[in-house]
Amino acid sequence: MSDGSARALIAAAGEVLLDRREQLPLADLAALAALPDTAVPSLAALAHEVRLAWCGPEVEVEGILSAKTGGCPEDCHFCSQSAKFETQVLATPFLDTDEVLRAAEETARLGASEFCIVLAVRGPDERTMQRLLELVPMVRDRVGINVAVSAGILDDDQARRLAEGGVHRYNHNLETAQSFFPKVVTTHSWEERFETCQRVHEHGMELCCGVLLGMGETVDQRIELIGQLRDVEPAEVPINFLNPRPGTPFGNLDLVEPLEAIRWIALFRLGLPSVILRFAGGREVTLRELQTMGMTSGINALIVGNYLTTLGRTPEEDLQMLEDLRMPVGVLSKVL
Ligand code: SF4
Q1: 229, 209 in Cβ contact below 8 A?
Q2: What pLDDT was estimated at residue 1?
């Protein structure tokens, strides 16, 4: 593709998203996915403009706590918390209340507006439901922070009870395109995930629905995934990049290359202009020196501190990056 045609494609996308404020057709996104590497910085610049125009300048900061780690009966091939694979993750029971409160306080101290309690489970059993319904209002009222939960597949009644119990946002990832999902997970279906996302919506919780890029999916499947995310209307989309975990079936895959990661962050922003697009797991090993460029390619939220089973940069480094970029930390759900 010539430089001139690349420029024309990017300009046409800008006209749709910025001048007409309309959604970009998936076919246009597919054309942008084929731009040469030299055009990626221009694509990223457009994605940054789109995020400012559709979402404003604030960046949302969130902390996550793995409140029950490992021992999961599911077989997600990327996940070191599955009991089906021999990994270095040790299964631990649900943390006690004091530990959860301490983690929430630490998260609030960093200026975060959202604290997510994450459990490695297929879905919550009744005992887990009771613990969540006890913890969520306690954390919200004592610490004064929004509480999100990630506890797997929900039935309709569980979604209703969590919404009534004060869960502000529920995380349930589609992870990948419907057509690729059977290569990633065999113990549950993509449709079960999709239905949980719909239930979260129906019961009035904000939906946080993440993706994991770099598992061998094709370019077309990434575009397919953007279309499927549009169908579940998430408030937030965390972008994870595969950080291959030893012992898992995907432990030997290559990392996504840094400039490719920037290209896809930008494409997810152009495809989902109004969502909170969050930098999540795998960003340090994937983006390496391009961390800051990620922030100006359409991202408007960060997970600070450690991820579920891998260590992140220090929160201070991330907060310094935001300060250097003059990006204010804010509460995005209030402005959406
Ligand atoms: S991704 Fe979630 S459901 Fe899948 S194995 Fe890991 S903890 Fe279990």
Answers
A1: yes
A2: 81
